[in-house]
Structures are given as structure tokens and as C-alpha cells.
Amino acid sequence: MALVRVLHILEATGGGTARHVVDLCAGLAQRGVEVHLAYSPLRADRIFRDGLPRLSRSGVRLLEVPMRRSPHPSDLKALMVLRGYIRRFGPFALLHGHSSKGGALARLLRAHSLAKAVYTPHAFVTLSPSIRPPERWIYGLVERALSLLTDALIAVSEDEAREAGRLGFPKKTIRVIPNAIDLSLTPPRSLASFREEWGVGREDRVVGFVGRFAEQKNPLLLLEAFARITHRHPEARLVMVGDGPLKPLVLQKVEASGLREQVVLPGFLEGRAAMGAFDLLALSSDYEGFPYVLSEAIAAGLPVVATAVGGTEMAVMNGQNGFLVKPGDVEGFARALDRLLSDDVLRQRFAQRSLELAPRFSVGRMVEDTLALYHALLGDRHAGS
Prior knowledge:
alpha/beta, Rossmann fold, globular, 6-stranded parallel β-sheet, 2 domains, 7-stranded parallel β-sheet
């Protein structure tokens, strides 16, 4: 008999959030939890689609419910479908919503059931520096209202936990559990095969970027910083793995800066597989929760240059396994890249420290911490078989 019955709700079926939910649901099911996952197919990327068979094999029960990212009249239909599912397959002890839409639906459903509501924001939209003040106020107001229906909030970084407190979530409901990866997985391709494909030599120094070409990730800042140091490092190459709405601007910047020979844009790749071909990772985001790319870089033994946002301060020990730079500081980012590219011994020392830190971010630890939170919420009702 399952110890806990939980319904996860996910609209954001792409990127790190999708990977988190696949890893978490599979891990919970393997530990005897009865897991149901209601997901939207509208934004599903390859990472999530490839994870669906794994979830089925793990015993996770799947329900496809179209949901839109932004508030939309169809949200009412999604809410009714989920209510019907709960009546048919419930009762559930927990409703666990991910990101803003899944979190809102889970907590609204809590008002009509006896279940506890758990919310994982995966980076509050209010953390975005580009959001307009009226929008920030509205989103903040909604989060404050829904905090009354939230039994526990899982922040993936200390920065996100602080934002939750600012938005009105009681401190006792907030738990920090960072994203994590399966450290036992071996990247499927070698350093040599990627570098050959990219036209990068063994003696070249590769600065790697993995992420969406979107405002949040600020790839244009990284390009500008890299452009400022290429005269000192003709052997340096910038490999930007990913795709997204800013790709046309990225291409324009590459051409305008005369970087065509030093910048490689291979498109979408499995981030962890590409890490083996990097000499260091660069993360130039304006805001974050706890990006998976950090866990992958640490597990790959890479030095990191990152903006000091979200979970970067949990994974990057400034001066030990990388350098932290203020968000938006192009010159500071350029100096940090220059320092690591100029010093082979420093890169090796930072790489070793990253490997030592990797066990902190294992998927097993993430699953166990989440399960412990579930048991704490439910008390003695589920504290045994």
C-alpha cells in the first residue's frame, strides 16, 4: 500500500522545470509513493517528451490537460477537468503544483478537497528585472492571496525563499530544496566528437553556455563580455547551446562583433552531454531559481562564471570553484572570463572543487528531502506502511 497519494500539476513542460518534475515524480514512485501527474502538452519539449516513457515505467499515472502559460479563459476548463479527475481517482493526500500556473491550480483545487497543497515556483516571475511595475504588483497580489491556501512552498534557492517571504508566505511554510541531477548518468558523447562537430580544436579553450535564448538568460551580456576578451584569447571559443526568441539578436550580435569564427551556435543539445567539451561554464542570467545547468556543470567538474542570482550562490563558491558577478555587469563578467582563461592551474583547482561539491546536488537527496516534507505535512497518517 502506498504511503502517500499525490497529484502533481505541471503546465511548464519544458526546460529545467520539466526535468525537475520528471526526476521528482519518478523518484517518488520508486520510493512507494502513488504519483499522478497532470501535464500540459502545449509547451512540452524533447526533455519532457522523452521523460514520459520513464514515468510510465516507474508507475506514474499520467493525465494530459491542455493549459496555457498566461492567464486564459481555458484555465476554468482545466480546473474542472482536474476536479473531475480528483473525484474519480482521489482522494489525494497532497496536490503539488509547479510554476505559477500549476501552482495556482493546485491551490485552488485545495479549497475543494481535504488535500494539502505544495507549491514549487521554479523562479517567481516577480524576480524578473524586466517585468513592468503594474505586472509585478498584480503577480505579487495573486501570490499573496494564494499563500493562504499554501501548506508548503518549496524554494529551489535561498534567493527564491527570500522572495517568498517578501510576497507574504509564512516562514514556517518555506523549505529550500535545490534542483539536482542523477550523478550516476554518463554523458552519451565524448569531448572529441563534439569538438570535431563544432570545428573546435583540442587546444582551444571553450566557454560554454547552455540555456534558452531569452531575456531571463541574457545571452547578449555573455556575447558582449566575450567580445571584450577575444583579443587577449584568440584560442577561446564560445559555444552557446540552446535556442529561443532572442536567437536572431544573438546572430546579429555575432556578426556585428566580428565573432563568426569564435562563436558556435549548435542549437538544442542535451546540456550534460555537451559539458564534457567545455573548459568552463558561463551563466549570464538576470534572475534564476536553481538552474539545472549549474548542477550539470558541477557534476562535470567545470569552473563557472555566473551572475549572482538565485541558486548560483548555492552552487558557485566565489573564488573556490568559480566567480560570481553582479547581474548586468558586462565588464565584471569579462574580467572573470579573462582570469579563468589566462590561468590553467586556477581552472584545474576550480574544477576539482566543483567535483567535491557535486554530491550536494544529487537527485536522490532532492527526492528524499521532498518526501520528508510530505511526511511532515501529513503527520502520522502516512508515517508507515
